[in-house]
Amino acid sequence: MINETSKKSKVNNNDLNKFYSDTLLLPKTNFPLRADAANRETLFQNRCTKDLYKWQMENNPKEMFILHDGPPYANGNLHIGHALNKILKDIVNRYKVLHGYKVNYIPGWDCHGLPIELKALTELKGVDKSSLTPLQIRDVAKKSALEALEIQRKEFISWGIMGDWENPYRTLDKEYEVKQLQVFHNMMKKGYIYRQNKPVYWSPSSRTALAEAELEYRDDHQSKSVYVKLPVINTKLDLPVVLDNLHILIWTTTPWTLPANQAVAVNPNIEYSIVCPNNDTSIAQNNYIIATKRLDALQKILGTELDVKFTFKGQQLIGTTYIHPINEKQCNIIDASHVTEESGTGLVHIAPGHGMEDYEACKKLNIPTFCPVDEFGIFTSEVGESTFEGKLVLTDGTLTVIEHLKKRNSLIKEEIFKHKYPYDWRTKKPIILRATPQWFANVEAIKQRAIKLLENVKMVPKSARHRLEQFTLSRNEWCISRQRYWGVPIPVFYESESDVPLLTDSSVKHVIEIFKKHGSDGWWKLDDQELLAPEYKNNGKIYRKGNDTMDVWFDSGVSWAFILEQTKKKDFKAIADLYLEGSDQHRGWFQSSLLTSVAVNDKVPYSTLITHGFVMDEQGQKMSKSLGNVISPSAVIKGGKNEPAYGVDVLRLWVASSEYANDVNIGKNIMSQVGENIRKYRNTARFMLGNLSNFKYSQLVEYEELDSIDKYMLHEIYHFGKNIKTFYDEYAFNKVVQALNNLTNVLLSAFYFDVVKDRLYADHITSQSRRNVLTVLYHILNIYTISLSPIAPHLAEEIYDNYKNIRHKEYESVFKLGWYDLNEKWSNQPLQREWETLKHLRNEVNQLLEAARKDKVIKSSLEANVKLYVNSSELLNLLQKHDLKSIFITSDAEISSQTIENYSDNNLTYVNEINLSDEICKIIVKRASLFKCPRCWNYNAQMESKLCKRCENVLSIN
């Protein structure tokens, strides 16, 4: 009978709870709990990208903000690094739009270059590639570039990147090529362009010269290094005895360059020694000249002790002659300051055709530059030894040279040497240094001025300044010529008989006019006579046009000129407000843009320069297909095998969360956490939207009428808003995310929402208390949504769609609202200090409540009452000002200044003594003594299944 009654009572209570739940003001909203981002985000894409870009250019009141896009290469699929770059740019642009700027963002593409040319030719099936004309090669390369560009364009747009996607700049466009030639022409007239036969980075696999920025260095490259003895013929050394069999000892990691040897260099200030191996028992002992400081190292390497006979300064060796290791001609020892005693023997084999420092050392002495290696990296007939001819220098050529040295008894030691070595960044194969006639830009004449002008550029991070300066200062010249067809030609002609170049003001002007009509194809469409300026057609000389094209870094490096024309920006300190690219661009686009702009305009092309790192996996490893750790942007957005479809905003939040100045990590665990953050943002917005569903702007309560906790939240949201603006202004987007997370998880979800739910749900719809909360929620939601919008525009648009009708003025997009205003009244430091005390007390009470919950004394905090004992009148006054039971979310909270009452020390009572504002406060938590109200669930009802007094009053109001 007892069980049946209990069961019946439970049923009745459930019915009662359901009946009263309909009288509660529970949140109602059409804003869904689940994002379904892959489908829902597309609903907002146009309005926050294409439509917004046009609107802000026509309607925003402030001056133009130019973020100049560094052009990605129109070849291959987009990777996660592209996402990092483009999304960072978009966050900046959206923030500027919200602040009323007309944002100019014209996406660009770098469309020329050998990789595109080779890829296009590889994709041609059943065609004899050797039979193709330059124009045919250019046609297939152009088609390949445009196809890749269109694929990339669509994917960039899908990431919510706002820009002028219908009118990008492309380095293959006729108008762009004309601008490029005009920049080249200006640099030429100022004397910055010249031709020289000197060593350049040469890629045998690509058959073209490379710039420093087109190199990748591998630390595990293995070379065959050799120690070689070279017989001395005549020496100026002042020795007390005559030494037979005197040799200089050299060391090189490039034996294939020995046929091109023109000298051996010493440092005149280094001490050298003549040494003899003490195990040399021959009648005529071998004597070797080495740097004295290399003695110990060479004894270990050669496996024998070396007896020192004489020492002297390197100056005495200069002018000494020796026998060439291959062709047996006589060569000299010369002075070269780059020689050190840190490695090798202290005497350096000099091949000016294969070394930049070698070239400079020989140039001063008029020693000819000799390079018996062709464009394929193969020894030519000039090598002077028939067994070498036709062999690849990096493989068989090296082995053949070593065998030759052995036969001549010149090889002292051979070993494998592991070291850092440059590779072609496209083919991933080793390069060589090879002297060929190339065109150069004189960086030496520009760089000091460029460094001076950089002083006025803001750098993010600050360390980027030193890096860019050092890369710029380390260059003296820039090889701008390339040996390929797919590119902008260097507009030079050569006299057929003398090979003397023709590059004059009028000859280049004429070519520019042709380009205005035909584009760069005109260089190959028209014959040499049509391309020549009139004054050179009948001057008694025959000219042929050159076949070199410009370095792609020159192509993209002059993009500032195109943007300058597009924006009609005349009075400028810098051409663009911002450049933002990866750290590799300190050697690339940042530098090529700087050098060309300073050379032509004496201006830096950017007022702010932001650098980001590379993307690694969760373990910090570089992504590669072989490791299987590659994560593509599309996989994050659309999902994959056993992987969720996170959507665009999660990808964007990952970018914003990163400390992008360093290398950035991505992986399953990281993306899962980022996805969880977006879910929390969504839930937070949903709570506010649900409670504001019937609220109107006209119902906002004046600040002075708000409750203390509501004013405190406005204080917090005021400083949140101030900080967010500061973080955006400093491009510290990860701090924006941290502030959003803290507001979401700590201040709102775990505190304010928790405290005010009872007022929102159980108070009367017209009550002042409830309207106070809704007023604060409105302000929070507005600031929260706008703060989030540059990072997660689709989510922000969806949130805004669900509350724009309650604003005083409705706009089509959250980005048309402008940045939020913050009322100075909201900042209230005394109130903030007061609430820090109350929050501390709340945390202490919560610990006791959790202990009671753990002991199953209570299930919910509403089942408990709290009593506080304080002796300080100041603290008492503070606590009495507030409705503590709502702060603690308990059914009752009393304050007493009396001596603590007796309490039974059992599991129904929980006690703690704390220091609160430097005063003692004792806390007692007990189980509530009254009954649970079936409507609000507070234990304040006088009888079971009856309403509490507050709920009776609410329901009595019509």
Structure description:
α6 (114-122) packs across α7 and α23 crosses α27. The radius of gyration is 39 Å and the shape is elongated. The strands form 8 sheets. Strands 7, 8, 9, 10, 11, 12, 13, 14, 15 and 16 form a 10-stranded mixed sheet that branches. A hairpin with a 5-residue loop joins β21 and β22 (501-502). With 958 residues, it is of the alpha/beta class. It folds into 5 domains: 39-176 and 574-625, Rossmann fold (3-Layer(aba) Sandwich); 191-209 and 434-551, Rossmann fold (3-Layer(aba) Sandwich); 222-426, Isoleucyl-tRNA Synthetase, domain 2, CATH 3.90.740; 662-827, Orthogonal Bundle (Isoleucyl-tRNA Synthetase, Domain 1); 832-927, hypothetical protein PF0899 fold (2-Layer Sandwich), CATH 3.30.2320. The chain has 30 helices and 32 strands. Belongs to the class-I aminoacyl-tRNA synthetase family. It comes from Rhizophagus clarus. This is isoleucine--tRNA ligase. Its main location: cytoplasm. Residues 710-867 form the Methionyl/Valyl/Leucyl/Isoleucyl-tRNA synthetase anticodon-binding domain.
CATH class of the largest domain: Alpha Beta
Question: Count the helices. How many?
Answer: 30
CA-atom Rg in angstroms: 39 Å
What name does CATH use for the topology of the largest domain? Isoleucyl-tRNA Synthetase, domain 2
What is the CA-CA span between the terminal residues?
42 Å
The shape is: elongated
DSSP strand tally: 32
How much of the sequence lies in strands comes to: 15-25%
Residue stretches low in confidence (pLDDT < 50, at least 5 long) are: 1-11
Which class of secondary structure composition applies to the elements? alpha/beta
What is the number of domains? 5
